[in-house]
Every structure is written in C-alpha cells, then in structure tokens.
Amino acid sequence: xxYRRTPAVQARLDAQREAVLQAAVALLAERGYGGCSMAxxxxxxxxxxxxxxxxxxxxxxxxxxxFRTVVGxxxxxxxxxxxxxxxxxxxxxxxxxxxxxxxxxxxxxAYALLAEPADAVVDAERLVFRRAFRDLIAAQIADAxxxxxxxxxxxxxxxxxxxxAVGEALVGPLAAGSRPDxxxxxxxxxxxxxxxxPTQGEA
Length: 203
Hints:
Elements: H1 7-31, H2 38-45, H3 49-52, H4 59-83, H5 88-105, H6 107-114, H7 120-146, H8 155-176, H9 183-195
Helix pairs in contact: 1-2, 1-6, 4-5, 4-7, 5-6, 5-7, 5-8, 5-9, 6-8, 7-8, 8-9
C-alpha cells in the first residue's frame, strides 16, 4: 500500500515550505540570487539542508518558485494600483509609478528580478514577468484607443516598449542602490509622451 501523508504531516510540510520561501525572499533581498544557495536558505529557515530537498529538487527549482512568489506580489500591487484609477492614462502611469516606487524601495530585490545574472530557468520566468506587465498596460492602451483618448497604434507593441524602457531606466539606480528623486516623475512623463498627447493623461 502506498504511503499517504496524514493531514497533520502535510500541514507541517506546507508550513515548512512557506518558511523556506520566506527565508529565500529575505536572502534574495539582501544578497541576490548568488546568496540563495540551498544551504544558505536552509540556515535562514532554521532547517537542515537535507530537508530542503523535500520541497525543491535543487537550486534551479527553488529559484523559479522564489521568482514567481516575489513577482506575484509585484503584479498584484500594480494591478491593484491601476484598478483605483479612472482613466486609461492614469491606469498606465499608476502601473509605472507603483512598480518603480516599489523597486526603488527594495533595490537589491528589484535588481535580482530584473537584471541579475541567473540560471536559464530564471531568465525564462523573466519573460513571463514582462509579459504580465505588458498585457496589463496593453489592455489600458486598447481601452484608450477604443474611446478615442489615444491615436490608433499597436497596443501590445507600445506596452512592450514601455515595459522594456522602464526596466532599463531602473537598472542603473537599482544596481547602484540609489533612489534618485527625479526617476519616477521622469518615467511618468516619458510614459505619457510615449502614449500620445500627454495632456490627455490629465483627463
């Protein structure tokens, strides 16, 4: 007969896995991917290194789950910020403001998400991450086009260009660990100019 975990055992393993992920997030924010070895995460979580393999096959699998955990929070934050706004322009700029603001408050973590050299599996997740932001922005651009607030354009292409530009503009400050005050206003101005008539963003 195959062994089946009891609810109590499963609950304990689930709690341990969550503790491992939280420890990994903390290490990622402090040291980047290079500091998130299985042994280092286990030490931070207060468990034996061997216990890590009950939850993850190796560092690559841990890195992917770690990336998804952190990015899921970022996508939720920008989606919520956009939902509070009443016009497509403001929704797009809310995405940019929120993402950039959160990134600059946690530069080491944001740099790891955006640009730090990592395993190929993490690079693949970065593409998914960028597409999620692209699709959120593209939906707002398409809405603005449909309601005559923006000139006709390829909404997905414009959104992808914005995501790429914002990410590239942030890499320098994030790598330096700095938080220049002018970055977010400049990104908002750039976003409105890229979308079309910037005065429409005030509507």
